[in-house]
Amino acid sequence: GMPLEWDAVEVASQFMEYWVAEDDRTLLSLAWHRATGEGLPPGTVDQIRVGRHFQAGTGMLFQVYLATLDFAVHEGGRRGADATLTEQEVAQQVLVVQPLPESRRLCRFGHVFAGGYAAGYYSYLWSSEERRAQ
């Protein structure tokens, strides 16, 4: 891979998401039926745009939760903290709606343990802000 500051690793994908969501030409150049070649039906672009904002606050809060959980698990691991307890504490601090007691988010959080994001998951949110600033 390319040598790149971790804070910027997601910026390229954020730009693509922005162009697909905000520029009709980009979206329509990518959105066509593979067998028929038909483009999106009229009105679909507007529906996609409206749908992007549905529960956007909840989605952002969940990303804050994941980034906070990532930091907490990596910091707590150095102290020998119980990861499940850490997960529950972070959820209490950040989330409005608490996960079910049997939820084990960390078991499904592959980015943190296998994807190279160790204590770097915040880069998703940071890259989104970088894209907005451009």
Compute the gyration radius: what is it?
Answer: 18 Å
Oligomer: single chain
Order of helices and strands: HHHHHHH
Rounded average pLDDT = 81
Poorly predicted residue ranges = none
Largest sheet: none
How would you explain this protein's 3D organization?
The chain contains 7 helices and no strands. The model has no long low-confidence stretch (mean pLDDT 81). It has helices at 11-22, 24-30, 44-52, 56-79, 83-94, 110-113, 123-133. It starts with 10 loop residues before the first helix and ends with a helix.
Labels describing this entry:
single chain; 134 residues; elongated
In short:
This protein is mainly alpha-helical and 134 residues long. The chain has helices at 11-22, 24-30, 44-52, 56-79, 83-94, 110-113, 123-133. It contains 7 helices and no strands.
Topology:
Blueprint: H1 11-22, H2 24-30, H3 44-52, H4 56-79, H5 83-94, H6 110-113, H7 123-133
Helix pairs in contact: 1-2, 1-7, 4-5
